[in-house]
TrEMBL record:
Keywords: DNA-binding, Repressor, Transcription, Transcription regulation. Residues 14-69 form the HTH deoR-type domain. GO terms for molecular function: DNA binding; DNA-binding transcription factor activity. This is DeoR/GlpR family transcriptional regulator of sugar metabolism. InterPro entries: Carb_Metab_HTH_regulators, DeoR-like_C, DeoR_HTH, NagB/RpiA_transferase-like, Tscrpt_reg_HTH_DeoR_CS, WH-like_DNA-bd_sf, WH_DNA-bd_sf. Gene3D superfamilies: Winged helix-like DNA-binding domain superfamily/Winged helix DNA-binding domain.
Length: 267
């Protein structure tokens, strides 16, 4: 969860109210304007102004009725591929249990999906498509897998081909399984991404896939990102970490998603 310990020095909010709002965001992942107004004995308009200020400082994302945590997963792919690798590998191994021989699997861009691609068996016959060059390079050496690489201009922040050419190439594909990469997931606010073209590509991939699975680090749960990809019901399977917060996993289960817990990450 985001560290709020050093915020507040340049805020126009009363310090105690700001601290308590941020404490609740850190603890619960979201706040409700009506509840906060009652607790602080102030108006909902005042709370909405508070939340607007906090959102402008990147400390939360405003949603209908309140605010939620902003996903921290906004760093460039070159940085993310070196972070939390043991955790991502644990997620990737569990994702692999969803595969079946001879499936057509589309692997979306992302560092967790790259870890998943590394875990793919050399002996499992699949057709794999991706617009992520790093994932393609990883899959290339697995001789039982037929690889389809989507072309186009590569966005260095995302680490994948995006834009018109890539969108046209995926439009005619009908994968059995889409392994979707995400920046954020929230039971009520849906799926999110930080880049507009990346969000557009993810939406296009979801529209043609037979089923959609995601693997999610804890810090992406119960958060939102700048661009909405789709509603939560567009995915069928979610792989979470062994110590994923029960409040987040329960909310996803209640939406009808199949949850799969990864084994504890090795250190």
């Amino acid at each position: 969860m985001r560290d709020y310990s050093r915020v507040g020095k340049n805020s126009s909010l009363p310090a105690d109210r700001e601290r308590r709002i941020l404490d609740r965001l850190s603890r619960d992942g979201q706040v409700n304007s009506t509840v906060l107004a009652e607790e602080f004995s102030t108006s909902e308009d005042t709370i909405r102004r508070d939340l607007r200020e906090l959102a402008a400082r990147g400390l939360c994302q405003r949603v209908y009725g309140g605010a939620v945590v902003t996903s921290t997963a906004s760093t460039p792919i070159a940085v993310r591929v070196g972070e939390s690798n043991n955790r991502k590998e644990a997620l990737g191994r569990t994702l692999g249990t969803l595969l079946r021989p001879k499936q057509f699997v589309y692997i979306d861009a992302g560092s967790t999906n790259l870890a998943f691609a590394r875990m793919l068996s050399h002996d499992l016959p699949l057709t794999v498509a991706t617009h992520d060059p790093a994932i393609a390079a990883c899959v290339m050496g697995k001789t039982a897998i037929k690889l389809l690489l989507i072309g186009g201009s590569v966005n260095r922040e995302v680490g994948a081909a995006l834009g018109g050419r890539a969108m046209r190439e995926v439009a005619g594909m009908r994968p059995d399984l889409l392994v979707l990469g995400l920046c954020s997931i929230h039971a009520n606010e849906g799926l999110g991404a930080f880049d507009a073209e990346d969000a557009e590509m993810k939406s296009a991939l979801i529209a043609t896939a037979g089923s959609v699975a995601v693997a999610v680090l804890n810090e992406k749960l119960d958060s939102v990102a700048a661009h909405k990809v789709s509603e939560i019901d567009s995915i069928s399977d979610v792989v979470v970490e062994a110590d994923a917060p029960p409040s987040a996993t329960t909310a996803l289960s209640e939406k009808g998603l199949r949850l799969h817990k990864a084994a504890p990450a090795t250190h």
